[in-house]
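>> received
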Amino acid sequence: MDERSERGSSGKVWPNWCHYHKGPSATAVMVDFIERASAAPVGLYACAPCREQRGLVPVGRCP
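>> returned
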């Protein structure tokens, strides 16, 4: 399963997941990633409202 895909409470796999409000989102983009020593990094995604509330900037758009 792609790290962007998560299972909602219904068990359905959502292709766009917001890790901040822990729910599906059509506007989720990668804002950070977690490096792991034994595996590939895992992206963290946030939807537009969560990005605005928390001042998050999409990866690659940082000044």
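>> Residues 19 and 45 are 6 Å apart (CA to CA).
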